[in-house]
Amino acid sequence: MANRTSLLLYQLSRRRRSPPLTSFFYYVPTCFVLFTSSLFIVLYITKTSNVVFFAHHQQQPSTFYLEEQQQQPPLPFEPLNLSFKANPPPFHREQEIPVVGFTESRHLEENSNSSGGGNVGIQHLGSHGINVNNEVFHDRDMFLEDYKQMNRSLKIYVYPHRPDDPFANVFLPVDFVPGGNYASESYFKKVLMQSHFITKDPTSADLFFLPFSIARMRHDPRIGVNLIQDFVRDYIFNISHKYPYWNRTGGADHFYVACHSVGRSAMQKSEEMKFNAIQVVCSSSYFLSGYISHKDASLPQIWPRQGDPPDLSSSKREKLAFFAGSVNSPVRERLLQVWGNDSEIRAHSGRLTTPYDVELLGSKFCLHVKGFEVNTARIADSLYYGCIPVIIANHYDLPFADILNWRSFSVVVATLDIPLLKKVLQGFGSEQYLALKNKVLEVRKHFQWHVPPVEYDAFYMVMYELWLRRSSLRVIATVKQ
Ligand SMILES: *[C@@H]1O[C@H](CO)[C@@H](O)[C@H](O)[C@H]1NC(C)=O
Ligand SMILES: *[C@@H]1O[C@H](CO)[C@@H](O)[C@H](O)[C@H]1NC(C)=O
Ligand SMILES: *[C@@H]1O[C@H](CO)[C@@H](O)[C@H](O)[C@H]1NC(C)=O
Ligand SMILES: *[C@@H]1O[C@H](CO)[C@@H](O)[C@H](O)[C@H]1NC(C)=O
Ligand SMILES: *[C@@H]1O[C@H](CO)[C@@H](O)[C@H](O)[C@H]1NC(C)=O
Ligand SMILES: *[C@@H]1O[C@H](CO)[C@@H](O)[C@H](O)[C@H]1NC(C)=O
Q1: Cα–Cα distance between 470 and 438 in angstroms, integer?
Q2: Which pLDDT score, from 0 to 100, does residue 215 have?
Q3: Ligand 1 nearest atom to the CA of residue 84, by list position
């Protein structure tokens, strides 16, 4: 438990006490994540270019980085002082920076001990940045211990709404079994309201849930996509006048949950919401300015399926990889252009003639390729059908990435490397493939919803992410009811 102190330090450093852009503690970790991510990508490219595997890059690797970063704010190198990071805590973000498989990581491990000095960022990555752990969790013991504590003590207050509220449809949980692409949003609220995390006493709450549903607002003719922003702004106005809790922290201990990407622009007219509140969203991209990876959390997009698929163990996976979907992004265009006619990588545009589950059960790897957004339900689909997810979606802040070691059960491939896809996938020997596959079976349970919830399922994992983001140092002395 020697890491306890550093974990605590890290958690303290993540607390948000004042409006973010003026807060040192808020700002530094943000910069740090941006900074180290960028360094890592550079480092990764530099390193891999020496590996035989990657000897055939057609393009200049750096162009990928520059193109993709344009919308990011400039990195403020000046105020960075990384010395307090010298001993990284177990849930450190660096562990989640996309890496292809196991093969290259060996080359990155060589740089072991180094510390201090002006190059802290780079050297630090060399020594600690790569997680050699092949387990599903970054640190199982730490997670289980924290989870228990979370399960015991986390309390959520939900702003109350009566069934006769004209917008009860937006605020109350759905009374049907959620389904489809955006089911995660409805599942979360439905399960939360029945869980032991709920408290009726706001003074004992760690976090406050804003129960509006983006999905239901979209379909409500009184609101619709065009008026969601106004509705959210009005809602914040209402609760911040009626209750003292929002003003206390400017919304920093409040959260909402949304799966449809409309949720992002929904906060456009509520700056405090966007900058302070915890946004638990499916479209969690480091690239988008509205999403702040360590403040916000990634909600897995899950098309709910009940029970186990029938022939998971007996399935013969003869195809190397599979993708099907509409070609609605340059990344998918590229995939189809390179692999559209391949016999081992089945990349299919539009409607399939074979059943989807047959394809997922018949392939070793299943491709999750960025479309309009970084997220789709394909990762959860792959896991459900025992297929190893291959993530081709630059800047996707993967769900539960601060808990789960994605490298143990998935392969992350940079968009630029689409032409190398077959080499990358064939590079996994049968032993490595089986190791990944076993981990896929192990993590499946974290990507499933249940009513009522089942220990360690998607609901509990989201609760744990919230727990990591709670603000336990709130100062409330001057607030009177
Ligand atoms: C960085 O912070 C450490 C500890 O707070 C301090 O000792 C050190 O002087 C700082 N370095 C710079 C360059 O400000
Ligand atoms: C890394 O540092 C530790 C403690 O300072 C030391 O025991 C170990 O030998 C060092 N390893 C290398 C490869 O330098
Ligand atoms: C979580 O809390 C529930 C309700 O108190 C309890 O039934 C369950 O055993 C707890 N799980 C763990 C892992 O502590
Ligand atoms: C805000 O409160 C007003 C007055 O009670 C109400 O008419 C309106 O519907 C509320 N708006 C939202 C978004 O809750
Ligand atoms: C919260 O702050 C707003 C704006 O400063 C103010 O109008 C409102 O009255 C405050 N709410 C409460 C409950 O004091
Ligand atoms: C695939 O093959 C068809 C028929 O030979 C051809 O028309 C098409 O251009 C090919 N597509 C790609 C991406 O190579």
Answers
A1: 33
A2: 94
A3: 4
Chain CA centroid to CA 5, Å: 26
CA distance 203 to 216: 29
Is the whole model's pTM more than 0.85, yes or no? Answer: no
Q: Which protein residue's CA is at the shortest distance from atom 12 of ligand 2?
A: 113
Residue 347 Cα to ligand 6 midpoint, Å, equals: 12
* Per-residue pLDDT, 308: 79
pLDDT at residue 120, as a whole number: 27
Q: CA 296 to CA 465: how far, in whole Å?
A: 9
Burial 91-121 (b: 16+ CB within 10 A, else e): bbbbbbbbbbbbbbbeebeebeeeeeeeebb
Confidence tier at 199 by pLDDT (50, 70, 90): very high
Distance 150 CA to ligand 3 centre (A): 10
pLDDT per position as a tens digit, 349-395: 988 889 999 999 999 999 999 999 999 999 999 999 999 999 999 99
How far does residue 279's CA lie from ligand 4's centre (Å)?
Answer: 22
Nearest-angstrom CA–CA distance, 201 and 167: 23
Q: Is residue 428 a contact partner of residue 436, using CB atoms and an 8 Å limit?
A: yes
